[in-house]
Amino acid sequence: MNKITGNATNVRTLFNNRYTVQYYQREYGWEKKQIEELIEDLTNEFFEFYQEGHMQRDVEQYGDYFLGPIILTNDNAIIDGQQRLSSTTLFLIYLNNLQHQVGTQKVNIDNLIYSEKYGEKTFCINVEEREKCLEGLYDNGYYDLTNETSESVINLYNRYQDIEVLFPDDYLKGGALPVFIEWLIEKVVFIEIKTDSEQDAHKIFVSMNDRGLRLTPTEMLKGYLLSEINHNSVRNEANDLWKDKILKLKDIEKDGDADFIKNWLRSQYAETIREGKRDAENKDFEIIGTTFHKWVRENKSVIGLSNSQDFEYIIMDEFQTFSDIYIRLKKYSREFHNDYDCVFYNADRGFTLQYQLILASISPSDSTQIIDKKIKMVSCFIDQYIAQRVFNFKTVDYSSIRYTIFNLTKAIRRKTAEELAQILIDYIGNMEQTLDGIDYFYLNQFTRRYMLHILSRMTYYVEQQSGINIRFSDYVNRQQKNPYDIEHIWADDYTQGKHQLEFSTEDEFREYRNSFSGLLILSKDKNRSFQAMSYDKKVVKYDSENLLARTLNQNCYTNNPLFLRFMQESNLDFMPYDEFNKDQLLERQQLYKEICKRIWDVDRIEQIVNM
Asked: Does the predicted model carry a pTM greater than 0.85?
């Protein structure tokens, strides 16, 4: 093996260079979970040092944070570490955009994101297929995936959206932002390992990743719990049960075992959560999220573990009960089930906290019937909670609602079905946000991530009520060959129709064009082929599309008895339109609002508990 060098290199130095990725490892595959862990690790470490009033110069006294090794050849080809480097690039782009939005003192990090020559940008990770996406994200935080086929590019865009959702809303979006950025680029460190040849780089990669296996927190927790069971036969039985459930959890997703244990312990036992102060210590909620095996050992009295029977019970009863429920919930979140539809709806909108909240409501002694009822009630509540916030432009980002969900977790913990229903009904009834926010709802950068889901729910509801057999999952599945997209009823053309008479400026026209009632869903190929058409041509095409689109066409109201019966029984004011101008758009906004009130009916929780 030729010469090898290894140096601790901070983000500022590392990202001042440009790197290539070998063709055989160009896929960027991080998921939301890895981005969430990265942001939590970085922000938690930053607050170990930051104090109110600190400025960028104070970062010099802060400690370093190690983000792992990367392996490069001398010509800057990445052999190991492109996932972390690509994710850090996304993070730098997001922070750069955030600086423009919040108007704080700007830290210049442009040169860490790209270099420019002859008017063209070259990004830190120089892969040609990613350039347009990264440029769009850098310019305005958006990239149109309509014609995109690259898995890596789709993942990059989705992970950027995750960063937008997960980055804390509190101090870091204010005066602490430039200090955080300064710390990130100066004190976050990689170990840069360089070799003369690609062959040597691969040898190092194999050597670093093939030197024994560390015990995971799950394995350490199992070892502790089993060690406290006195009888060999019982211990062996508990061990077999544990292994069986862990295998099933891992079949769901790579870290399914750890994710389940975190949700289980938080839902049933966590009593404290880190305060919003900069120098606050981690509490039950955060410690369970990182070292749950240690937390159980240190809090065994809280859990009720004092003798061999207690340790036997927690595996043979609690662990078994809650792992089985969690496996069910994960199945419902991926495969649409009519009886547990809200679990799927919540998962489709990326609401990962639903598992904790649902598990909190359940007692190990609950019957199967009661467990089923609680799953339906809590998931229905979450569906309504998300809807009422989103329709009022209130975020449901993890960092914004974690305290709310944690307090709700404790409030509903092991309650009876009747007590649970009352708590959830009261909470929805006392929310500041209501469905009246629909009057002003429209498509923008914030609502874009939810709009396809909302329009799909409306389309599915109208079709389901009219006896049309369609799968909701088909409308929101982004992985299928020809997925559905958001369709604007008005073409993006100010000169069409009466727009210039009704709107004094093109900007005003575009605002109304993005109104809730001016949107539908169509398959991607239809969306592309219809987009430039005038309304009089589009409405003819809509007649062969989904039922919500068809309701704009007069033909929908003839020879369609099931729909007509639904319209009469529901008292919803569906109307066809030969022309669709400002007045018609505002009229249809009220129809959309009424449909949404039926979908997110506040009485549904009470109906479930009384079933």
From this structure: no
